[in-house]
Every structure is written in structure tokens, then in C-alpha cells.
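Ticket #4471: structure export looks truncated?
Reporter: QA, pipeline team
Priority: medium

Steps to reproduce: submit the single chain below to the structure queue and open the exported record.
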Amino acid sequence: MTLNVTERSYYYIHTTDGEFEIRDKKSIKSKLILQSPHPTGPNPRVTGFTFPISEQEEVERLENNVSQNALIRQEYINLLSRKKPEGMSIVQFLPLIFSDEALDGYNYNGSNTLGKCKLPMKGYDIFSHCFIDAFSSEGLNLNELATQMAAAIKQSRNRMRQRTFRAKKSIQKMLEIKPCVE
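Actual output as written to the record:
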């Protein structure tokens, strides 16, 4: 199937029934429904975790469980490979697994020009080796993963800044005193 529009004008929505919808950003109308790339079997799960992970403590707990338990590691790799539809980049996919708030304390290399120390994602199995294991068949290598993870973190920070900006703007509007017209 071919679409005659640029990929940037659409985004993916994961529905609760395991399908993926591609929606037009402008009109928010469903354009196409894709079956999950692995339609057989139940929805993938990782024992003891709910996705997307929303807190840094849960990220750390997932890392510990994946590092210490081969079964949890395999469940996580299966979740990654089964939840991501073909053609979706890691940048688009990461928010389905981790919320922006959960990723706030991380960046790919762990360094930050502003002096704030971030935890290095490249040292975590859940951000590096598991992603490689899940998507190496799609041609993902360590260099491409590093590039996409860095871009995903950048987009995550941008979304958080936009939410903060919009919240401040809403508060300012609510606090404005408008004179009554009689």
C-alpha cells in the first residue's frame, strides 16, 4: 500500500485492542488502521509492569528486573518487538514505553552541557541491548540506536517544555482581571 503524503503529516496511535491507527495531524481523522505486526497471541506484557512507565523509579526497577531475570528480559524484548509497528522509528515508539516524566533524569550519554548530571541510557540494558535484540532484524545497530535515542530524548524535553509553557499561559489567562462592562 502507498500513501501519497509525507510521513511527517501522520502519527501513530496504539489502541487498546492491539491495532495501530495512523492519524492525520491536522484533521485528527483516522486514515488507516494497521494490524499489529505480530497479530497472534495475547497482548505482550512484562510481569509486574504497566506500560508506558511513568516514573523514574519504575525505570530503575525495570532495569534491575531485566538485568537479574532472564524471563523478564525476554518478556521485555518481546513487548518491544511486538508493540512497535513496522516503519515506526524508535523516536516515535519510545513514548509508548516510557513517559516523558520517566525519562527526565536520563540522556543517552549521561552528560549535559547545563551541568545537570543525567543517567546514561547507554549503560542500561532496557535502553540499549534489549532494543538492539528486539530490532536488529530491522537493521538497528548501536550507532543508529544512539542517534534515535538522543532524538527521542530531545523530543521528550520539547514536549515537557511545551506543556510547562501552556500551563503557565493558562494560569496567566485565569489570573487576568477583566473589567466588567455595564
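Status: closed, not a bug. The export was complete when the record was re-opened. Leaving a note from the reviewer for reference: The radius of gyration is 19 Å.
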